[in-house]
TrEMBL record:
It comes from the Bacteria. It holds the Pfam family Competence. This is Competence protein. It is found in: Cell membrane. Residues 1-22 are annotated as: Disordered. InterPro entries: ComEC_N, Competence_DNA_uptake. PANTHER family: BETA-LACTAMASE DOMAIN PROTEIN, DNA INTERNALIZATION/COMPETENCE PROTEIN COMEC/REC2. The chain crosses the membrane at residues 32-53, 73-100, 136-158, 347-367, 379-398, 410-437, 443-461, 473-496, 508-529, 571-592.
Length: 629
């Protein structure tokens, strides 16, 4: 009988084992440049399309919009511009990809050239240069060029197609002529919430199915924001089909391109919601009925932390409360605005948006249940995906929720296929898939915030936690590293929304971190129990309100005073300035760390004891000093 073959030192040094960190793929970042190029291509195509179409659609003395249709010269212009921007994006990301790939390959080839198999930490040791690195470099460049160019072209063409369809939609064409009174058939795709306009009581996102203009009915697929008042708000149930008469116009601000304002009493129900939407609507009504027994703090924050909808934004009977069912009066609007502002100034407003935390908790629960019941992986993984979809349907729809559910489904599918969890790769594929299917998401700040926070945590939270773990307890190092990485990656995008820097966001997140999971779990449990057992749902909802009360105290304490926030430059200029500053700080830290490593390799190493070891040594030295005196 022969034993397993023994590898030589050169062979073992030149090839990573399959179970190592580099071989397992948990640090696979190859799709990050692809996602960046697709995002840049979508944004550039959107900007070019709108600029060119607005120019040709603007009537002038030399040409009229009716005489010279704007869509005649647009397709070749935008397509050519998309190709140029795609090439520029390729060239921008190509340097990063080539550098990463070539550096990694050259390190492996140099390791293979070392016959002794010893890794020398000092850079003073000269390794023989392998002769095969130039063909490898050329192959890496050509592969990167082809992949990134294809990604840019796909993103640009997908965006161009979506923009052309949206431009020629009958609803959009009618709105470009000015405010027009029409009769539309729409499907409601979000719960009704408090209106951002003073002239309306509620608003809801809808998809226009048909439009009747002066007796001519035309089909449509445009998305719009519908505004209603009074009893009409009670008809706006998620998933229902309604017919309404009102004013259609272009949106003055916001992500939705169209606004539709219902003329009083002009809503009629044509089709009820599906059984799943009906179940979610009943669950939301029961949940808000139970939270109505809490104080104003709990009524605002518990729904926000549980399902992503602040309590003051919930619309029951069209007046902001549920008085028709004998419940508590509406939340004090002044207190709700002040509380929301305090959360924003303290840097913890992101807790009121459903993102990956809910899905992480649910995924762990499903896996542990499957492990307890000894279910195979090919059964648990589909159940996990189904659970994610059901949870997404029960939450208030948002762009961060879309990112979380798609990424969670991709991770579960990879686990079903026997692949290890790769957060960076899953995030990159999520971005590519979402932007190609819905190019309009490239302009969503909520989607960008969610993706950037996850990218920062996936890339640098673990190394930072290891570095901080030598100076503080492991649990505190984990929370601090996740907070700092997420804040660093999202801060430039936050400045686009609000030109202020929350200076106390890191300590605020550290203070509320122990209470977030408890409040979320208790709120979800109460929401599930509310439709069938309101009495049993109240205790967990009350526990959640106790946890949110701690968050409120932290927000009040940290947001008071002029030092809570620092003004910053507005717009893209301020965001770019912050990005440059963060990159400069990272470069300084990397250079400083490399200098310390070179000093350690030269024999002047530093001894850094663990935090508890340092404390024990200090206590021993203090005791010896006191005994000697």
């Amino acid at each position: 009988m022969t034993g397993p073959p023994v590898e030589s030192p050169a062979t073992s040094a030149g090839r990573q084992p399959v179970w190592s960190a580099e071989g397992s793929g948990w640090r696979d970042r190859r799709m990050v440049p692809v996602a960046i190029v697709v995002w840049v291509s979508c944004l550039s195509t959107h900007a070019l399309f709108e600029a060119v179409m607005d120019h040709y659609a603007r009537p002038g003395p030399s040409h009229d919009a009716e005489v010279r249709p704007p869509w005649v010269p647009i397709a070749p212009v935008v397509t050519s511009a998309t190709g140029v921007l795609g090439v520029l994006g390729v060239l921008g990301a190509l340097g990063v990809v080539s550098f990463m790939g070539v550096s990694s390959a050259r390190r492996r080839l140099r390791g293979a050239a070392n016959a002794d198999g010893v890794r020398h930490p000092s850079r003073s040791v000269r390794h023989p240069r392998p002769r095969s690195w130039r063909p490898l470099w050329c192959g890496t460049v050509m592969t990167a060029l082809g992949v990134l160019g294809t990604a840019a072209l796909i993103g640009g063409l997908a965006t161009l197609g979506a923009d052309v369809v949206r431009w020629h939609d009958p609803a959009a064409a009618a709105a470009r002529q000015g405010a027009v009174t029409v009769v539309v058939t729409v499907r409601v795709r979000s719960p009704a919430v408090a209106s951002m306009r003073r002239t309306s009581d509620c608003q809801a996102e809808v998809v226009v199915r048909a439009m009747d203009v002066r007796g001519v009915v035309r089909s449509s697929g445009a998305t719009a924001l519908l505004f209603a008042t009074g009893s009409d708000c009670g008809v706006l149930r998620r998933g229902s089909g309604i017919e309404a008469r009102g004013t259609l116009e272009r949106a003055r601000f916001g992500r939705q391109p169209l606004w539709f304002t219902v003329i009083g009493g002009g809503i009629g129900l044509r089709e009820g919601p599906t059984w799943l939407d009906s179940a979610n609507n009943r669950m939301h009504d029961a949940f808000f009925a139970v939270t109505g027994r809490l104080s104003d703090q709990g009524r605002v924050l518990v729904p926000g932390l549980t399902m992503g909808l602040l309590g003051q934004d919930h619309v029951g009977d069209g007046t902001g409360g549920d008085a028709s069912r004998g419940e508590a009066p509406p939340v004090d609007a002044t207190y709700a605005r002040l509380l929301e502002e305090r959360f924003r100034r303290s840097g913890i407003m992101h807790l009121m948006a459903v993102s990956g935390g809910h899905f992480s908790v649910l995924g762990v629960l499903v896996r542990r249940t499957g492990s307890t019941l000894h279910l195979p992986r090919n059964v648990v993984a589909p159940l996990q995906i189904i659970a994610y979809l059901l949870l997404a349907g029960a939450m208030y729809p948002s762009d961060s929720l879309l990112r979380a559910v798609v990424m969670g489904a991709l991770v579960s599918w990879a686990w079903l296929m026997g692949r290890p969890a790769q957060a960076v790769s899953a995030l990159s594929w999520t971005v590519v898939a979402v932007l190609i299917l819905d190019p309009g998401m490239s302009r969503s700040l909520g989607f960008a915030l969610s993706c950037s926070a996850v990218l920062g945590i996936a890339l640098y939270a673990r190394p930072m936690a290891r570095m901080l773990g030598a100076r503080m307890p492991g649990a505190l190092a984990e929370v601090l590293s996740m907070t700092v990485c997420a804040q660093a990656f999202t801060l430039p995008i936050q400045l686009l929304m609000e030109p202020e820097i929350p200076l106390l966001s890191v300590p605020a997140n550290l203070l509320v971190a122990p209470f977030v999971d408890i409040a979320t779990l208790a709120g979800l449990l109460g929401m599930v129990l509310a439709p069938c057992a309101p009495a049993l749902a109240y205790p967990p909802i009350w526990v959640s309100s106790v946890m949110t009360a701690v968050m409120e105290r932290c927000a009040v304490w940290l947001s008071d005073g002029s030092m809570a926030t620092m003004p910053w430059a507005e717009g893209v200029r301020g965001a770019l300035a912050m990005a440059v500053i963060e990159i400069a700080v990272v470069i300084v830290l990397v250079l400083w760390r490399r200098r310390l490593r070179r000093r350690d390799a030269a024999g002047h190493g530093r001894w850094a004891p663990h935090g508890w070891q340092a404390l024990r040594r200090w206590l021993g030295e203090t005791r010896s000093m006191l005994d000697g005196t």
